[in-house]
Structure formats: structure tokens, C-alpha cells
Amino acid sequence: MNKIAVVGAGISGLSMANYLEKQNINYHIYERRQKEDLAGHGFLIPQEGIEYLSQIIDPSLLFEHGSFLKKYTQYTHTGKVLAEKDLNNVFAISRQSLVNLLAQQIPSEKITYGETVLFSNSDKKKLRHSDGSDIDADIAIISDGSKSRIRREIFKEEKMRTVRENEVVNIIKNKSIADRIENDFMKFHHEDGGLTFGILKLSADTILWYAQFDNEKYRINELPVTHLREYMIEIFTAWNPLVSSIIQNSSYENVHLWCVYELEELNPFYQDNIVFIGDAAHPLIPFTSQGVTSALKDSFTLTKYLVKEDNIEDAFRKYETERKPEIETHINNGRVLLNQFLLPLNQQTENILPISYK
Ligand SMILES: Cc1cc2nc3c(=O)[nH]c(=O)nc-3n(C[C@H](O)[C@H](O)[C@H](O)COP(=O)(O)OP(=O)(O)OC[C@H]3O[C@@H](n4cnc5c(N)ncnc54)[C@H](O)[C@@H]3O)c2cc1C
Known about the structure:
Bound molecules: flavin-adenine dinucleotide
CATH topology of the domain at 4-40 and 95-158 and 265-339: FAD/NAD(P)-binding domain
InterPro entries: FAD-bd (IPR002938), FAD-dep_Monooxygenase_BioMet (IPR050493), FAD/NAD-bd_sf (IPR036188)
CATH architecture of the domain at 4-40 and 95-158 and 265-339: 3-Layer(bba) Sandwich
CATH class of the domain at 4-40 and 95-158 and 265-339: Alpha Beta
Oligomer: single chain
Protein name: Monooxygenase
Helix content: 25-40%
Shape: globular
Pfam family, one: FAD_binding_3
Strand content: 25-35%
Keywords: Monooxygenase, Oxidoreductase
Domain FAD-binding: 3-328
Number of helices: 10
């Protein structure tokens, strides 16, 4: 098997490296950030994603680092229950924990941190080290995220557009709230639509909260991050006391404000010896809760065809043929979920779960 360079050590690049490792395929993975420089949000992962993760991480170790959510409850902003649904093996874990677990299995000589890989379409389509020297690889697997520079360099015509939603995500230590919410996933909705607040437990003493804003009504993306706390307190002041107290009492040290983007149209997933996986191939909006599972399935499927097929082009084509239709379903479901979110509560339909299923 030819030598493979994997660009980006997020969930897609690291899961790819894990599958290649299991198949004894020669690879090296490059990551822009430093090893310990891990920030970020958390993931909801449906059962299918857990099944793929369990192929590459010891399940008992995985389950120690997150928690299974048992029930989803939808509330009005003041706390009146609107709907409830039992959850079937939906797992919550911080990005940091999952990245660490996936990175543990990669031998240190096969991963380089602090290395921004360079690529220019006009430069014989070669990957380069940050010092400009060539990267020695026959196949490039690109997993550099939703705003992939390599993808934009190859598909210059692509159009990224802003999604009508911004998300503020925070992970805080608070055992008493974690005990109080148990394994419930709680989501509060403003009656007029376009504003929600979600709370879930990541571990015995850690919770994740997030707020979703219609960015045409709430100009949160124009706000300096230093003013986020004040703004959040103001917006959520008359909400259920659980929500307003969490907002008041949280540390904002690790808070994140996400501007969400999507591709107007998907590009091909490969060109020549370059193939895209995860968000680099297909940014998915957070409403789908399918980013991680899709990244895992991309890595699994691509590895399967790299092993089976003698010819790289056949492997890439079969990978794209198998994965693209499912991704298109999640993109469409994501748009439906986004439209629901923007509507006033009394116009939203029964399908309450913030997860896209194929
Ligand atoms: C607010 C928010 C909430 C979300 N919630 C969920 C959820 O509940 N469930 C879920 O399944 N998904 C969720 N997602 C989506 C999920 O985060 C991604 O789909 C998933 O992490 C896959 O990411 P990735 O590995 O493809 O890309 P990324 O995580 O973006 O990783 C890309 C990596 O490439 C590195 N990199 C970039 N350029 C270079 C370069 N030139 N050289 C070297 N390295 C480079 C970056 O440093 C980064 O580490 C959410 C996303 C957001 C923003």
C-alpha cells in the first residue's frame, strides 16, 4: 500500500489514522495545533456513532469519559413542558476527551503537531511542510475541517454561505447542577422562535450548555467575546431560573461563539490523489448532531475501499458513491431542523428531536 498523508487531527483525521493503524497501512498525520492546545465544545453522538467508535476505542474507556442521555425534554422558555422523548443510546462527550482518546492509539512517530500543511493547486498539487519542503506521500487524505483551505484551493468556484444561526457553547464544572439534571437533555425554547437554550451532563461534575440564536434577530456575531456574558444575562433574564442561574454563575473562560457556515453545493469528495473526509468534504450544521458519526463513517468506508481496491481512483469513487447520498440526507434534514428553530413555537411540528436520522 502507498504512503498516506492525513492532514488535520480532528475527529475525522484521528479516526482515519486509527482505522489505517488497524490495517497496518503506512501513514503520517499532520496537525496545525499543538498537542495540548485543545479547546472546544462537546458532541451528542447517536447510537450508530457509538458503534463505529467502539471499533477503535475500548468502549469501557469511552463510556468513562462521557454520559448516556436518557430523556429529551422540550420546554418553553419559562419551563413549561412541551414534549418528552426517551433517547436510545445518545452519548454526550466533550471534544477534548474524544480527541484525546482517539489520539492515544496513534504511535508518536506517526503524528506531527504544530505543523500547518501547505497546498497550492498551481504547485504540482503537492502537499508541503510549513517550511516549504515536499511531504512524501502518494495519497493525501484531507481532514482540515469545514473551512478547508485545501478544498477551497482545489474547488475555487465553491460558495460557502452563512447559516442563519450562531451558537454559544460552554462547558462548566458544577456538580450540583449535574446531579440535578441527571441524564436528561433539556432544551428551552422562546415562544417567538429563533432562540433556545440546551443543557446536558457530560460527566458526574461537568455540564455543557449551549444557546442558539437566529442571527438576523440577535446580532450576536457583531459582539466582542468579552461582552458575551453581559449579553447572555440580558437576553435570558426572564427565562426559567435554572437557565438564568446557569448563565449568571458560569465561568466564561472557555466559552465559544460559533458562526455556522454551509456549502451551497457539495464538491466532489476527491480529485486525483487527494480525498476529503469529515467536515472538509461536507460541513454539517450543528442541528444534525451527525458531524462525528459522519466523520467516523467516512473514515471507515474510505479505509474499506483502500484495502479492497487495487486502484486508488476506484477506491475514492466507491467511497464517494457510498457516502454522498447519506450526507445529502443529513444536509436536507439539517435545513428542516433549522427552519423549525426559526419558527414560533406554535408553528413547529411534532418532530422535536435535534438529531438528523437517515
Ligand atoms: C457548535 C458546534 C456543535 C456541534 N455539535 C455536534 C454534535 O453535537 N454532534 C456531532 O456529531 N457533531 C457536532 N458538531 C460537528 C463536529 O464538531 C464535526 O463535524 C466533527 O468534529 C468532525 O470534524 P473534523 O475532524 O472533520 O474537522 P475539525 O474538527 O474542524 O478538525 C480539523 C483539524 O484540522 C486541523 N487543520 C486545519 N488546517 C490544517 C492544515 N493546513 N494543516 C494541518 N492541520 C490543519 C485543525 O487544527 C483541526 O484540528 C458540532 C460543531 C459545532 C461547531
